[in-house]
């Protein structure tokens, strides 16, 4: 399983995450459905890292057709998916 660092996200008009990105990586961008499948199957993991080196893993939340991606809440807002720049 490869760990993939995410540095940007794509969002729809409602602000929901639609893709994960990292400039210069062959796998980027990866769509939300693919990322969810890869996380659930254990094929790849995705994470966000802030400027201080704090890592926040990206998790799948929800069930059925209502699944989405998020990081766990912590003291750093810079590692939240919603706060990443657009890709």
Commentary on this structure:
- There is one protein chain.
- With about 90 residues, this protein is mainly beta.
- The chain has one domain.
- It is about 10% helix and about 35% strand.
- The protein has one helix and seven strands; from the N terminus they run ββββαβββ.
- Strands 1-5-6-7 form a four-stranded mixed sheet. It has a three-stranded antiparallel sheet with strand order 2-3-4.
- A hairpin with an 8-residue loop joins strand 3 and strand 4.
- The termini are far apart.
- The mean pLDDT is about 90.
Tell me the overall shape: globular
Q: What is the helix content?
A: 10-25%
Strand percentage, roughly? 35-45%
Gap from first CA to last CA:
24 Å
Mean of residue pLDDT values:
90
What letter string, H or E per element, gives the SSE order?
EEEEHEEE
Compute the number of helices: 1
For the biggest sheet, the summary is: 4 strands, mixed
Category from helices, strands and their pairing: mainly beta
| Number of discrete domains | 1
Detail the poorly predicted runs: none
Number of strands: 7
Strand order of the largest sheet: 1-5-6-7
Radius of gyration: 12 Å
């Amino acid at each position: 399983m490869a760990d993939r660092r995410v540095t940007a996200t794509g969002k729809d008009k409602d602000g929901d995450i639609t893709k994960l990105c990292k400039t210069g990586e062959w796998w980027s961008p990866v769509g939300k459905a693919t990322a969810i499948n890869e996380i659930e199957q254990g094929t790849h993991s995705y994470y966000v890292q802030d400027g201080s080196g704090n890592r926040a893993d990206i998790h799948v939340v929800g069930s059925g057709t209502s699944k989405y991606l998020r990081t766990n809440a912590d003291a750093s807002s810079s590692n939240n998916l919603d706060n990443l720049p657009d890709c």
